[in-house]
Amino acid sequence: MSRANLRGESRLRRLRWRHQRARKDALLHLSRQPAGHAFALLLLALALLALLLLKTGIDQFRHLGAPLQQAHALSLFLDESIDGTAAAALREQLQDDPRVVLAQAISPDAGLAELLHAEGSEEALSALPGNPLPWVIVIEPRDRDAAATLARDWRGRAQVSDIAEESQWRDRADAVVRTARAVLTGLALLVIGGVVLLVANAVRTIRVEGAEERALQRIFGASEADLRRPYLYLGALYGLIASVAAVVLALVVFLLLGPALAELTAAFALDPAGSRPDWPWLVGMIPAAVVMGTAGAWLACLFEKDVEASA
Amino acid sequence: MIEAESLSLRYPGGREALGDLSFRIDAGEMVFITGRSGAGKSTLVKLIANLLLPSRGVLRVLDCEPSRLARRHRPGLRRRIGMVFQDHRLLPSLSAADNVALPLRIQGAPDGEIERRVRAALDLVGLGQRARALPATLSGGEQQRVGIARAIVHRPPLLLADEPTGNLDPQLSVEIMALFERLGAHGTTVLIASHDLPLIRQMRKRVLVLEQGRLQEDFRPQAEPA
Q1: Which of A141, A165, A189 is the C-terminal boundary of a domain?
Q2: Cβ of B68 under 8 Å from any chain A Cβ?
Q3: What residue ranges are annotated as transmembrane (chain B) (predicted)?
Q4: pLDDT tens digits for range A161-213
């Protein structure tokens, strides 16, 4: 035999061949026990589907929370002695305040008309001898801090008999929304961790069978990267197949539940997009799952004896 | 090719497996390492194969000093060494040809190159017709020859064999040794650990004798008088 060896081949070309072979090996692993892999892949697909649905939930809570972040309106109930001219002057003064976005004066007649529109109050109001309502100035402050300082500044002034802060209940609702979003985000992170561990466990099980082969490969000069490569491709394949299955399942879910979701979103003034598939997310899920699968496979490859122990 | 200076290996438990070994093996030499069971023959082979690292002393293999090599460069040295095992260590699910192809696949050889070299290696050991056979359908001698084909398929400059004839009958052992001798004649350095003294005497090659991990003798048997 001649002494020619493989060192003449370029390193890049050899690396390309090694990757090709690793991909073939990964496919071979998948084809060996299709039923076993199918169960693991279905489990992964369901986890990824849960992730997609959690993402929709997080979006809806974000949509629900957005107006609450802004709404901290103050209502200044003016003294009975304040007439329309004085009320307009006060409104102008408030509108000029940099902390105020919008100041609106509501006359007693307009206030009464609004109350009459409210369900169940017509009878009680019609029993009153006249219009007992004062002038009211409704302020939309720039932010929560502005609302607090405005209320502090105007409380106790002679022209103002009372100040209603609408921000308190909104703060509570906002806190509920934020907590729900945090819980959903936490759940989503747990699902991502679960997906990575599922792949790690599946790859670890497959690797047990090939321990003797890897020990031999190490003796003949395979590096740890060479030995890891087919399993990384296997993890990536797991992510790819499971995410495509999850996307198909998500489309079926949206197809079946679309009308009901549309009604729900309309009833709660939620984002109507929540009742339809979010295509960028569905498509983005595929590369993300490939990364998760690769990470899981990497985890499975971390703890193996080195060549000295296997020699 | 191989150079040892005061080479020692102590296992983690404290037991000394090899102590103060010094020798030199030149390129193209065929050398036997012999000694009783537990003398340190296999340990020395593993050290030279870069599967173990010495505790003390210097070992140079193929112009490299494995203990000074970075961990990531050690596989590169192993790729230049062929290994033959007493128990063959063939992968049962792979055909003879696929077993032989293993070192070439590790080196990232293209498929055409692998096919050509595997065929040549199997022809060299006389198993060209059994390329598709699974190890379980081969005899012990055939399995050992597949193991040798696997060790030489990537044309390593150094071939190590640990008790390669341990499970073979005398006739097959002679055939295997003749094969090693042919490889040596082509410039491959061959180092064989064996306790088969009659066979070693018959080969009349250089012999390193180990006793409790120490080098007792380094000699070349003379031709027996007719």
Answers
A1: A165
A2: no
A3: none
A4: 888 877 666 677 778 878 888 888 898 899 999 999 999 998 988 888 888 88
